UniProtKB/TrEMBL annotation:
It comes from Neoroseomonas alkaliterrae. Gene3D superfamilies: Hotdog Thioesterase. It comes from the Bacteria. The lineage of its organism: Bacteria, Pseudomonadati, Pseudomonadota, Alphaproteobacteria, Acetobacterales. Pfam families: MaoC_dehydratas, MFE-2_hydrat-2_N. PANTHER family: PEROXISOMAL MULTIFUNCTIONAL ENZYME TYPE 2, PEROXISOMAL MULTIFUNCTIONAL ENZYME TYPE 2-RELATED. Residues 145-166 are annotated as: Disordered. This is Acyl dehydratase. Residues 163-277 form the MaoC-like domain. InterPro entries: HotDog_dom_sf, MaoC-like_dom, MFE-2_N. GO terms for biological process: fatty acid beta-oxidation.
């Protein structure tokens, strides 16, 4: 089956209503590495229920409609899809408890041509279920490697944020834990690539890899620590491009450049000196 452009662009992605418990918020924060220093009071604010806060990146697991691209009627070869880019725009700090609604849609599709794949641009709006207030907007890019040449438009293509050529102003290292992918999947992403060594080996990896959105969360932690003083109210948005996977247990070094309104950033794993996140953009509210 090939992509039907109009059908996929208007695909009925289910609306999700989700109840957030404080345990869910604490689990998410723990799963992206908060709490490795149990004496750090600022990190405990994201783990200890009497004063619990939600990390801005938690928006990526709110209102998640599941891996709907796996449905045969999408026309997409789901075995050939990659998560290419992700952004979170925070309209107000996320609640640590409450009920939310997630509404997702495909916002654009770009046909790169036969043998060159397709780009699927998606948007999810996270709303407070009680008030209808918009909490966050998520934008992502999925690279469908096996689905080009269906006759769709060839653009426009999102331009990545440029990286400065000078040395970074801030460098911050955060370690991941060997079992971190096993913990992170409890947030709802159950892809066996992140837990089953046999599945990982068939995909060409020496071991299960860290979820891309877990890497996103680790980098968000670095930005919150370096630029926001761990205050979610000082976080506006972050955009990034996924460049390479991380193996659980590796150290992620976030390199940050100050610029008007916020910062540019990228991240690499220290042990392999491999860039894993590129073209990052951060903005204050």
């Amino acid at each position: 089956m090939t992509i039907n452009y109009e059908h996929l662009l208007n695909y009925p992605i289910p609306e999700i209503r989700q109840t957030i418990r404080w345990q869910d918020t604490a689990l998410y924060n723990f799963s992206i590495g908060l709490g490795q220093d149990p004496m750090d009071q600022k990190q405990l604010d994201f783990l200890y229920e009497p004063r619990l806060k939600a990390m801005p990146s938690m928006a990526v697991v709110l209102g998640y409609p599941g891996f709907w691209l796996r449905n045969p009627d999408t026309g997409v070869d789901w075995t050939q899809v990659l998560h290419g880019e992700q952004s979170v725009i925070l309209h107000r700090p996320l609640p640590a408890e409450g009920e939310i609604i997630g509404r997702s849609r495909i916002s654009a599709i770009v046909d790169r041509g036969p043998g060159k794949g397709a780009l699927l641009y998606n948007e999810r709006v996270v709303l407070d279920a009680k008030t209808g207030e918009r909490l966050a907007t998520l934008e992502g890019t999925t690279f469908a490697r096996g689905d080009g040449g269906f006759g769709g438009p060839s653009g426009p293509v999102k331009k990545p944020h440029p990286e400065p050529e000078r040395a970074p102003d801030i460098t911050l290292d955060l370690a991941t834990r060997p079992e971190q992918a096993i913990v992170y999947r409890l947030n709802g992403d159950h892809n066996p690539l992140h837990i089953d060594p046999e599945v990982a080996a068939k995909a060409g990896f020496r071991q299960p890899i860290l979820h891309g959105l877990c890497t996103f969360g680790v980098v968000c932690h670095a930005l919150m620590k370096a630029l926001c003083g761990y205050d979610p109210a000082r976080f506006g948005r972050m955009d990034l491009r996924f460049s390479s996977p991380v193996y659980p247990g590796e150290t992620i070094r976030t390199e940050i450049w100050h610029e008007e309104g916020g910062a540019a950033f990228r991240a690499r794993v220290v042990e392999r000196d491999k860039v894993v996140v590129s073209n990052g953009l951060f903005r204050h509210p």
